[in-house]
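Box 4.2: Ligand-aware structure prediction
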Amino acid sequence: MSSTLKDSYGRAIRDLRVSLTDRCNFRCFYCLPHGEPPIAPKEQMLSYEEIEYVCDVFVSLGIQKIRLTGGEPMMRRDIETIIGKLSLLKPKGLQDLALTTNGYFLPDRARSLKAAGLDRITISVDSLKPETFKQMTGVDVLDRVLAGIAAAKQAGLEPIKINAVIVRGHNEDEVADFAAFAREHDVGMRFIEFMPLDSGHDWSRADVVSGREIRERIDEKFPLVPMDVARGSETSSRFRFADGAPGEIGIIAPVTEPFCGACSRIRLTADGIRGVDGTGRISKEPGAGEFAVFVDRVNFDDCVPAAFEDSLNLTADRASRVLLCAKHRQTKNCGKQNSESGCPP
Ligand code: SF4
């Protein structure tokens, strides 16, 4: 099994996002406008053995980075076990094992994540003001999340990135404060334009604070210099502070500056069967004992699905539910920019 995954544009697929669960202990208004996520029954979640197995196959096909996501991935009690298993893939070609979290569990568990083999961490923090944080996330736990960032730093889960979704009328007045936080704590602060998600919330272009405005708001207080790094498949434009202060700024602008042309990602959903839009659409019903691949957008080399099937050794009842969703992560979110970005319609 030596093929490299490529999509229909010939782009090599190097990054795999693995959703460990749909569950979350936060209720961010832009993610869960109706309060509750569509949660797959527990028995349908992929077990850690299945996740390990699928990731092993993926690494053999050229995946170099794995990021664990959710929901909130730390809602899974076996996350340290999963990380421990996946870290064993490093001699096989895995170069980077990362986690995106809301930070709530980090004060108690940052060290155990590091000990299990996690390389680095991204923490979502949408406001540094307790009231705004509560209003945006539905929970009054800013202090705990900030303690989580400190714990991650202490545990050596670096470089630490902080993600903030900037939404007009909520937190655009905090952009410079976030930049000050990056300088003070030597972290990479990443600002994300508010974009349409799959959760059915009322997105409006009027709520979008553009990447350009974000940069201008920071520049006014802390002049920025673009970093001389190849962007590659990275989603963010990166900047350092002109005065040499520590920390870094990243701006992710999927609405005003589509970046999908260099996309190298695929995603595995928590139950392994649903499409990325959560509608349950699948392209092919898996037969018993067969490992089916969601090929709607990704053009696997002919030999690759066969390689999956040949090497699958799951019992029929489990295998019938293990369907890999290998669709462009951004395809749905950036529909309006398809012609510019090169993403399929
Ligand atoms: S923390 Fe993340 S997964 Fe949880 S509600 Fe907020 S955006 Fe959604």
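In the box above, the bound molecule is iron/sulfur cluster. The chain has one domain: 15-326.
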